[in-house]
Amino acid sequence: MATLILIKECLLALKDRTGSSLIAINRWLETEKKATIKKHVMKAALKSGVEKGILIPVKASYKLSVEAKKPPAKKKVVKKAPVKKAKSTVTKKVKKAAPKKVAPKKKSSTKKTARKSVSKKPITKSPKKKKTTAQRKTPTKVTKAKKTKKQ
Prior knowledge:
Keywords: Chromosome, DNA-binding, Nucleus. The protein is built from 7 helices and 3 strands, in the order αβααββαααα. By secondary structure, it is mainly alpha-helical. It has a domain of 68 residues: Winged helix-like DNA-binding domain superfamily/Winged helix DNA-binding domain (Arc Repressor Mutant, subunit A), CATH 1.10.10.10. It has a 3-stranded antiparallel sheet with strand order 1-3-2. The longest helix is centred in the first third of the chain and has 14 residues. It is flat.
């Protein structure tokens, strides 16, 4: 992620219309930021930038997408009015819960019998149709060379 931010900053500074090569990006990072980035880290950052839509690959170069060139939109922070809690001195009445009626349990045997009655059909293989001799034999082409040898 940090490498991608450096690459984005580099491409904004270079302002190359056709995109900047990997060598040009590394050279800018060494001179301006005094940092070197390993090849595998750079390639991974470029690949993730392309996937996210920040970078556009052009031949052996990369340039920023139109969306990435725009400055990030500032988020508006909406402050909520503080909610004042009123202290209540009213006592709450506690109602006694009425005892719940327990429903009688149903017999589970009816469910079991229903399950037993629904049985899966055994899987049977359909018999294969035998090919006739006409279907088995495919017509063969006889070339002119073979005909001449036989004669």
